[in-house]
Design a protein that fits this description.
The complex is a heterodimer. By secondary structure, chain A is mostly helical. Chain A has six helices and no strands. In chain B, α7 runs antiparallel to α8. Classes of the chains: A mainly alpha, B alpha+beta.
């Protein structure tokens, strides 16, 4: 049994993005399989030994043994990571947080505008209030978008990261953000073939 | 086996300690192996607790009476189902079951959030592990469920309390525990956010669902408890403000407040500190209720019993909890500064503020009134009683205010509503409310609280119907589909809001049930065979007694025939069951004939076999079933709100509009019989008005801790004694106040259901006013402080918007739907 390959380490899968032992499919056994097997054998023996008892008691004994097998799996899951030597790259997690915060703020502002429009349509807000509040919200959203634009975009960061990983030379980023329509300026998904607003074909896509 | 179980508990304790320590260490050193090991250990606790649980259930099923706990809570004749559920039938097992559920719930929470909230997970693991450690410690040193007998082993158990051998009672505790345990998760997230300082809204989004699930379990648990009380205790009601019931209600109030105020933070970025305070308070109250029910600090019919040792440990834990939680909160206050803008009192924010004020006030009021006897005992040395009259006096107006807010809140816009909008918005709901209220008055309802309640219910239903209708119309216009599809889309797009409205419908249904309580009728008759009892439209004829026996109990059944308007309707069989080995605790088996309009509820409180006589209580409880429908609706509404964001919920979404109209219709249908009942409620007087009034205020002496009116105990000797005393006082020509004074003089203040308004006990009457006023002042002050910067900043917004940016904004808005 190759014990360093464990499905139980899946829960923290994203960390595995960094080069490490790749889960190989040719391993004969995975720990949970072993424990399931142990549970099955144990339960069989227990059922055999308790054959005089009532059905419910036998079922409970089997359940107990399976729970014990689960204890085994979890114990392995507890001990196994300690044998590894990788450490978390510091500050990686924290880096994007301010940005995520801005994104969140922006989403909040946009959602508020949407909500306000809905409220107006429902007849809850007067035109005057709507204009005033909508203006304020739009200004806030625009300010946030400007702030987001000022910082390096995710897309650039991702491109650079990919470039670093595949070992290619620095990819030069297009002047216009990828996916922006040449004729109307709408931002589209990176793989869009036509602009969702004006319907023009995207550059070099269609 | 028992020794193995005990070692498993020990092992779980050690593993918890390991998980907490290694997670914190891993987070501080940013070491991935340590973190992963911590999470693994956390799962390991769940696995160990599962094993230990199946061990103890095995002991129950096989009847291993060498284990003390098994011996005390089960016996060999119990059906298998009750044997399994005896696991949580006693104090020790219930603590173990608690840890078991917490380990499963916590494991699930960590599993689902391990990626999205990577930075919080280690501290979530640590916080939950520490809480588990406390309960495991309790079991290890004090309440070990695996404890065995030191000398010889008994061969038979003493059996589960007969009162607990009821289906609802079997599922009620686990549902409540799931609620309480579920509320640990938001607390753990909140604490993790406080400890790490990641105090943006992300933790809040993570806990929203968990809180809703926990809240659902808590609500359903309370509902099941009420059904149990209604069916099993046999006094015709479902809620009597018993300390243990109140204890479960406390976290419900604060959790409801949190579910509302969380929206303010999401939408407006306000109330950040308040939300954390609510999360901490809610969790604290779950622990507090455990403490109340298990330490014997309050007197209650269904507390687990006195246990000063346990009380001491709980108090230490609770003090630590408060100090650490609020300590971290104060430490992190600088990070929690929020962008508070308060535009107008006529806004949804203001409605939410009031909603929170009322809910939190309710929680504190109930907490205070529940603890007051203990407090008064400590200060004055005299034990007094705070009973249903005192609670009702406060909770009826509070409940009605809450109901009317339910109708008003959704009509207000975020930020600001103008007078013109208000007229447009409120026209239909107000008319609906007036129409229902007017109809009810015209039909002759003269109970003010119920009349207002019906009117307000109409208002709320009007509000909700209008919200669905107008929302669907708006969506129909923007999407160009038919009304039905628009409605589906509407609910699908904002499940939480419309699920929330469905829950409001549920609240209205429940209030209908509460309002019905105003028209209760009750008769107690010493019946001989052939005797007829008339109540409402019904005539109940007592035909005789029958005694039967099965393996586990002897059953004495009263046979009754029911006539309605002269025609025979059905036969009903109220009974008393005497379980073997528990003969001193006979159960009252109520016979209930349910219908939409009212329940006919028969109780045989006493009998005399030699003379074939029985003491029969006949209750007519109008609209009770709407309460249970309300709980069903509440579960459905929460389910809609919980549907994953992307699920488009075609099937579920079409129900609301029908449900709303149907409920409106049913409301009308149902009110009619209630009103008719109210009309003929007056005749048939068994007690004089003065007697009836005093009966509600004076406690029965049989140990039931209820007023004379509500004592449902078998062979109750207390009621007769008290009535004799009462009649004697009245015959001496005493007035109401003099009668009460005479009771206090003879039997001490404890005999009153409400604390006397004098000396230290005046505090009970004063403090709610003070608390309520203080809350209101706080709200007004906060709102005023918040409204200032908004006015100053309003003009400062950059009016010149870059057109390109504006276009992009429009784009993104279009994408958002």
């Amino acid at each position: 049994m190759s014990s360093e390959i464990s499905t139980e380490s899946q829960p923290l899968a994203p960390h595995r993005a960094d080069p490490g032992p790749k889960p190989s499919t040719n391993a004969a056994f995975e720990p949970w399989q072993l424990f399931t097997l142990a549970g099955l054998i144990g339960a069989t023996i227990a059922v055999f030994m308790a054959r005089g008892q009532s059905a419910s008691a036998v079922i409970l004994i089997s359940l107990t043994i399976f729970a014990a097998a689960a204890v085994g799996v979890a114990a392995l899951r507890t001990v196994l990571p300690l044998t590894r030597k990788t450490t978390l790259e510091a500050s990686q997690v924290l880096g994007g947080r301010t940005r995520a915060g801005l994104e969140r703020e922006k989403a909040l502002a946009l959602r508020s505008i949407k909500e306000l429009e809905f409220d107006r349509a429902m007849g809850k807000v007067s035109e005057k209030d709507f204009d005033e509040m909508s203006g304020r919200l739009r200004a806030r959203a625009a300010r946030l978008m400007r702030q987001l634009d000022a910082g390096a975009g995710y897309r650039g960061e991702i491109e650079r990261e990919i470039a670093r990983r595949i070992g290619a030379q620095e990819v030069s980023l297009p002047a216009r953000p990828a996916g922006q329509c040449a004729s109307c300026g709408t931002s589209n998904d990176a793989d869009a073939r036509f602009c969702k607003h004006c319907g023009r074909a995207m550059e070099g896509k269609a | 086996m028992a020794a193995l179980g005990y070692y498993l508990l020990l092992a779980a304790f050690v593993v918890c300690a390991y998980a907490a320590a290694i997670s914190v260490a891993g987070a501080r050193r940013r070491s991935r192996p340590l973190l992963e090991s911590g999470v693994g250990a956390f799962y390991l606790v769940a696995a160990i607790m599962t094993t230990a649980s199946s061990l103890i259930i095995h002991a129950f099923v096989t009847g291993d009476y060498s284990v003390r706990y098994v011996q005390q809570t089960s016996d060999s004749t119990l059906p298998l189902f009750y044997k399994i559920t005896s696991y949580w039938g006693g104090l020790d097992g219930s603590i173990m079951f608690w840890v078991f559920l917490l380990s499963l719930f916590g494991g699930a929470a960590v599993y689902f959030n391990r990626e999205r909230h990577r930075e919080l997970v280690p501290y979530i693991v640590a916080v939950i592990s520490v809480i588990q450690m406390f309960f495991l410690y309790l079991m290890i040193v004090h309440n070990n469920p695996f404890q065995t007998f030191l000398t010889e082993n008994p061969t038979e158990g003493t059996g589960l309390s007969p009162l607990l051998q009821n289906f609802y009672m079997v599922i009620h505790p686990p549902t409540m525990y799931l609620g309480f345990v579920g509320l640990t998760i938001p607390y753990a997230f909140g604490m993790a956010a406080l400890i790490t300082g990641h105090l943006d809204d992300s933790w809040l989004r993570a806990v929203r669902r968990w809180t809703m699930i926990a809240w659902l379990f808590l609500s359903v648990g309370l509902g099941l408890g009420m059904i149990w009380a209604y069916e099993e205790l046999g006094w015709g009601g479902y809620w009597m403000w018993d300390p243990v019931e109140n204890a479960g209600l406390l976290p419900w109030f604060t959790a409801t407040a949190f579910l509302h105020s969380v929206m303010v933070q999401e939408r407006r970025g306000m109330l950040k500190v308040w939300n954390i305070v609510l999360v901490i308070t809610t969790f604290f109250l779950t622990i507090f209720q455990t403490f109340m029910t298990r330490s014997g600090i309050v007197q209650s019919v269904h507390a687990f019993g006195q246990d000063p040792e346990l009380a001491r440990m709980f108090i230490m834990f609770m003090v630590t909890l408060v100090v650490v939680s609020f300590g971290f909160l104060i430490y992190r206050l600088p990070l929690l500064r929020s962008r508070n803008e308060f535009d107008s009192w006529l806004s949804r924010e203001a409605a939410f503020l009031f909603n929170n004020w009322i809910l939190v006030f309710s929680a504190f009021f109930v907490l205070f009134a529940t603890m007051f006897p203990t407090l008064s005992h400590a200060v004055t040395g005299e034990r007094i009683t705070v009973g249903p009259p005192f609670f009702n006096q406060w909770m009826i107006p509070i409940g009605l205010t809450m109901l009317v807010l339910t109708g008003i809140g959704p009509l207000l816009a975020w930020r600001k509503s103008t007078v013109l909008n208000l007229r447009d918005q409120f026209l239909f709901p107000t008319l609906a409310g007036l129409a229902v209220g007017g109809t009810v008055v015209a039909l002759g309802v003269r109970v003010w609280s119920s009349g207002i309640c019906f009117g307000f219910s109409g208002l709320v239903m009007g509000t909700i119907a209008q919200e669905f209708w107008r929302g669907a119309r708006v969506r129909q216009q923007t999407t160009g589909t038919d009304l039905f599809t628009a409605l589906v889309g509407l609910v699908g797009r904002n499940k939480r809001r419309y699920g929330g409205y469905l829950i409001h419908v549920a609240i209205v249904l429940m209030f209908l049930g509460f309002a019905g309580a105003g028209f209760k009728q009750k008769q107690i008759v010493e019946a001989t065979p052939g005797q007829e009892i008339e109540i409402g439209d019904f005539i109940v004829r007592f035909d005789g007694l029958k005694v039967t026996d099965d393996a586990r109990k002897q059953m004495v059944t009263g046979e009754m025939t029911i006539f309605r308007n002269g025609a025979e309707l059905t036969r009903m069989y109220p009974a008393r069951w005497y379980f073997h080995r528990r003969e001193s605790e006979p159960t009252t088996e109520v016979a209930i004939r349910r219908s939409f309009a009212e329940d006919l509820y028969l109780v045989m409180s006493d009998f005399d076999l030699s003379r074939q006589q029985a003491s029969i209580e006949v209750h007519l409880n109008p609209l009770v079933n709407w309460l249970w429908f309300g709980f069903g609706m509440l579960a459905f509404g929460t389910f809609v709100a919980l549907l994953p964001d992307r699920a488009f919920a075609f099937a579920d979404a079409k129900v609301p509009a029908h449900a709303a109209t149907a409920s409106m219709l049913l409301l009308a249908v149902v009110l009619w019989p209630a009103a008719v009942l109210a009309q003929d409620a007056a005749p048939r007087v068994r007690f004089t008005a003065l007697e009836e009034q005093v009966r509600g205020e004076v406690m029965c002496t049989c140990g039931c801790r209820r007023s004379l009116t509500f004592c449902g105990m078998a062979n109750c000797h207390g009621e007769a004694e008290q009535m004799a005393r009462l009649r004697e006082y009245i015959s001496q020509g005493k007035s109401h106040n003099q009668v009460i004074a005479a009771f206090v003089n003879d039997m001490g203040a404890e005999i009153l259901m409400s604390p006397p308004d004098s000396g230290f006990n005046r505090l009970a009457w004063l403090l709610p006013y003070v608390l309520g006023a203080a809350g209101l002042v706080t709200i007004v002050m906060t709102a005023r402080r918040w409204s200032r910067p908004a006015i100053a900043g309003a003009g400062g917004a950059d009016a010149t918007l870059d057109p390109a940016l504006d276009a992009r904004l429009d784009d993104e808005l279009r994408d958002l739907d």
